[in-house]
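As a warm-up, study this chain.
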Amino acid sequence: MRTHDLIIAGGGIGGSSLAAVMARAGRSVLLLERSEVFEDRVRGEWIAPWGVAEVKRVGLYDLLIGAGGHHLTRHVTYDESVDPAAAESATLPLGIFKEGVPGPLCIGHPRHCQTLIEAAAAAGADVRRGVTVSGLEAGPSPRVSFEHAGETFEAGARLLVGADGRISKVREAAGIALHQDRPHHWFAGLLVDDAGGWSEDLQAIGTEGDFGFLAFPQGGGKVRVYGGYALNQPGRFKGEEGAKRFLEAFAVNCSPANQALAAGRPAGPLLSYFNNDSWTDRPYAPGVVLIGDAAGWNDPIIGLGLSITYRDVRIVSELLLGSDDWAALDFTSYAEERAERMRRLRFTAKLQATLDMEFDDAAKARRASLFERAAADPSLRMHAFAVLAGPEAVPETMFTAAHRARVLGQEA
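Now compare it with the structure written out below.
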């Protein structure tokens, strides 16, 4: 049995980025990844400006830019109650949220993962792909049993990192409870090609009728699009014609440029999933720490999965590199920061889902009222700055029931 400083279960974005950072610092890392090839899972292609700042802090920004990372610099919020010209006159510049960051960074998920896992291997990590983990033991001397290339191996480490996603075996082995709230709506995603009529620096969100849309260009005529729809429509985009019906739903009047999306060509799978939040009270246990979705995820309505993961990687790597006595290392500061971060983002996501992904007459009137009131009082949209600048950049009063009531026009 070989012993390492770190065994990281999960070679996606969180696991591979942490492996690269720690291997570059001279630590012995074993990285275990189930897949042989990274595929489009309609996950993780947008990093908020505050997440880009975290990427820079862990030294991986140039790597992502070299792999085709694409910055977005403008945002427009469309709505059926607002004339498109009026919406576009309020275009938000995205370079104002973090110094030195021109805006969110987009990069295709499979390429993103592959770039990072190659960087981890180049830095000296022992990278194993096509792995089946057969046993996990937490505690002061964690161990992992796994099968790879037809052989069975056992490895030990000073620390086991769970970066193995939402259904985390490491979290289960460590006895860490996961809490989830109720889903709010369905969300579907698709990569669209031949959408050259969509500006490559513009991201957008909008709601019309019974459909809410988001669009994030990836460069080269490709746009990652998402659509939200009611929970009582589970089969709306299923079947052989599902992708066709999904793109047709983007042909809304409130955003004329959406015609380019509706006329585009599907360039990957169409996947639908519930939108909800989850969290852990304490993302660590003896011999174990969790990062990324394994530690709990934010509702994808605000798209912060990658930003959350990169901050996890930055905080955990700083703690590990700040002391060589990992047996006495205390992850309390990580747990406390993450709990407050996720609380604020959970509040923001719930409010944003209420605004953008509800479709009855009351919801339409609520959005129209907010557009009108926010023109005179921009603080009504201050909670959304948490998405772009980071949850800590917004005053605590923006994450209260009183602020929610003001935004929704429900003051007593």
